[in-house]
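Pipeline run #58 for the internal structure catalog. This entry was flagged by the ingest filter as a single-chain record with no existing model, so it goes straight to prediction. Upstream metadata was stripped on purpose; only the residue string is passed forward. Reviewer on rotation: M.T. Logging verbosity set to normal.
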Amino acid sequence: MDRVRRPGSYLGCEVYARAKSPPTGGVHWVIAFPDSYEIGATHLGFQIIYHVLNEHDFSAADRVFMPWDDFRSELELRGRPLCSLEKDLPLVEFDVIGFSLAYELGYTNILSMLALGGAPILSADRDETDPLVVAGGVCVANPEPLSPFIDAFVVGDGEETAVEISEAVRSWKASGERRDSLLDEIASIDGVYVPSRWSGDGFIKAGRIADLDSAPFPTCQVVPMIEAVHDRAVVEIARGCPHGCRFCQAGFIYRPLRERSPQKVIDLAEQVVKNTGYSDLTLLSLSVGDYPAIVEVIRKIIDALRVQHTAVNLPSLRAGSLSAEVVEFIRSVRKTGFTIAPEAGSERLRSVINKGITDDEVIETARIIFSNGWRLVKLYFMFGLPTETEDDLEAIADIVGRVRQVGLEAGIKPNINVGLNAFVPKPHTPFQWEAMPDIEQIRNRLGFLRKRLRIPGVKVTWSDPRVSFLEGVMSRGDRTVAGAIERAWRLGAAFDGWGDHLKWDVWEKAFDEVGLDARSMASNERSEDEPLPWDHIRIGASRKFLLRERTRAFKGEYSPGCGVRECMEQCGGCDAAAKVKRAGSVAEIESYSQKEQLEDVGGEFWRYRLIYRKIGPARYLGHLDTVRAVHQSFRRANLTLRYSQGYHPMPKTRFGPPLPLGTASLVECFDVDLLESIDPVDLMRRLNEELPRGLQIREVTEIGKNDPAPQESIGSVRYRFEVPEGGRTDLNARKDAVDTFWVEESFPVTVKSKGKERSIDLREVITDVIILGGATVEIEMLCNEQGVAPRPKLVWESIFGPIPPYSRIIKVGVMEAKRDKTLPESETSGANAKNDRVMY
């Protein structure tokens, strides 16, 4: 793990990770996310399926994510397959591998994960000894580019279908029949598409959850060991969207709109935050501002969770749906971010795409945000939309400038982050027949916008035009695209959605070798009469409805969305007899009992010093991830932290110096302020019940409020090096190296800190070296005024040479210093400090 950038991604010992074994004859899944751990660990759909499968007695689920290049190299170096996080089993040993398809640019990663896990990449090559490979998620809207690699696709909501697949696999295992019989059985399940069993007749209708209140939802969401991209608790308040933006695939394929009741949202929010210990909660839907009871729900949640300083986040907002009251509630705890998505710059083009918002609504939303003290606003736009002109592009710069002016008028210097994305005509939308701009057109329009957006305080980000083009090819392609995906993967393509990983020359070669005209696949307009590769997938609105919406688009006519209470549009998103449950009224919210608030009145608080171990998997947590895990554990233990003041309150904790990544420690320390007095033994017990594996409190002491911080009293530290046994030769060589070290008057080494190099003298730093045998050495080093000593690995290699593979470094002692004078702010404190007593 020492050569891996973020080893915490591969530990698999997170809070609420379930290392469950299925019963005899049961079904063992591995849920696979074809992107990095940081992206997939908190993905809600991924967490829901993981929860559903582990809740049933006859099934169990592990997780696996696409490893970064460094970890893949480690696997290859050690000759190991890609294994699951929970059980450390190769993927080929599972009954089912279930991929979550959230983004088309992860397709080559799917092949990498199958191959690394020991499973055949082609469905036709799998037999009874191989796992069943299934996939679900938004990309199943067009499954054809992946059809040779996936045995079965789950179309629509997967909570119930995943269980039905498990039941089919369990029955098949008991029967002892051939694999063909399993595929036949799965193909008969509603909402499942099995490419090898598709006759070309009829269609596959998506599965749907009608009542979100009764749908399974994970309140004990897996808490990543490292900070994820979306590192917060999540509660889904609605599925579907009350609007009908014609470019938006999610808005159509998740029809009909279904909403959780206000009381259910509040109950779930309290449970999820309490169980996970997160300080941030996201209320998730495609248009959260349109949730009927949003103001009252946010108020109730914030009131209930105020004692834990839980902040509420709202995803991308529709302009006009944000009220000053909501902003005030959010601000009362901690200022979170706001994102407004006008999508198009001009009102004319917004009419084409059925966005249905005006410039004035965008400006008023920005005014509400800035007037409440926010300095940062994010704006998202698309370019390359149907009927777009240069005037529409100019309008983007104009509306951004007007938003900035609103901030200036509010008396602040605003920061505006503008995200630009090329339009991709997605399946099952009214624009599915439209042409996508090619790479050169994307570059030209992007260049135009970047010049116009050179505005003070405005930061512009955009996707690589080649990434957008590949997304178009794979989202709009047929089965012929599969050959290019496989060829690009064999040529080394991976993580194609990450700009620094895209190998465009590889894709160009793959397209050429398989004879695929990628440009026509993505950028050609489709005739309304021609069959589309995804016509057999019925998800969301009907083809007839989409054609009607396409006609309305070019007339600039507005269409009501799915949110009207009495649907008269007959879009085909739900059956006439379906009873879709909606949110209900604010009146349904019950009176809410909350924990008695503990306010920081008069500055009254109690300070404790905690000594803890950082061992096992936790030694691969960085310092910030360790601090984050500790804070979450306090919240899960229902211990009331004292917070700082201001717009971004933080827990009042003081940690000792960071420990080098991969180094274990028996003697780490931090101080914490609590708003309640608690018995130290009880504090230790409650916290140890919540800390992730490898972090363990071993001592708690109440200290004075004026006591110095942990690092301010450290004089020296002692490290133990446990290296592979090398026999008498290694022992003698190490004794000789120590003798040589003590003979030298100075022993300079070069260290790097914050990109700068400087020299330190180890003879002024090292106070003791003890050789306990050929395999164990202890070294004691003095620290500077910040409690920092040279990195132990650097010290070892300077004296003994390269540290052997699979060695362990353990911090085993911390000694207090009695200082005679002020020490220099350098890497060491030299002879100006001496050991006084053992601190911990």
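catalog note: Residues 591-602, 819-836 have pLDDT under 50 and may be disordered.
catalog note: The radius of gyration is 29 Å.
status: ready for reviewer M.T.
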